[in-house]
């Protein structure tokens, strides 16, 4: 399994860790697996210290795969945008699942609920 450098942020050159490459945030667009543009792939993982990491892979010749640290809110957004909500069942993403459940609690009020409250 290949490893990629993890940077402090998407725009910082400081390497803070190395992680195993994955494409867990990819989705099928009807023709190809991808996420983030033509020939681009995305993954997600969590460091031992609790920080979440987004992994960017590219099939474009000459470009390098890399990863960067994100907040738990940003990590959840990436999971939701990919549609791969089943990732939240993995033990390492339990914190994201809790955040997701709070988000679901904020869903719109059902008409039946409003009528019964009156």
TrEMBL record:
Identification of the protein by name: Uncharacterized protein
Organism field: Clostridium thermosuccinogenes
């Amino acid at each position: 399994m290949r490893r990629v450098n993890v940077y402090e942020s998407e725009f910082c050159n400081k390497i803070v860790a190395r992680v195993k490459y994955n494409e867990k945030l990819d989705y099928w667009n009807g023709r190809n697996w991808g996420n983030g543009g033509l020939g681009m792939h995305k993954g997600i993982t969590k460091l031992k210290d609790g920080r979440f990491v987004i992994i960017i892979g590219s099939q474009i010749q000459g470009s390098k795969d890399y990863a960067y640290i994100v907040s738990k809110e940003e990590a959840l957004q990436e999971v939701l945008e990919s549609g791969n909500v089943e990732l939240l069942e993995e033990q390492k993403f339990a914190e994201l699942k809790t955040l997701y459940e709070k988000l679901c609690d904020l869903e719109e009020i059902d008409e039946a609920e409003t009528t019964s409250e009156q």
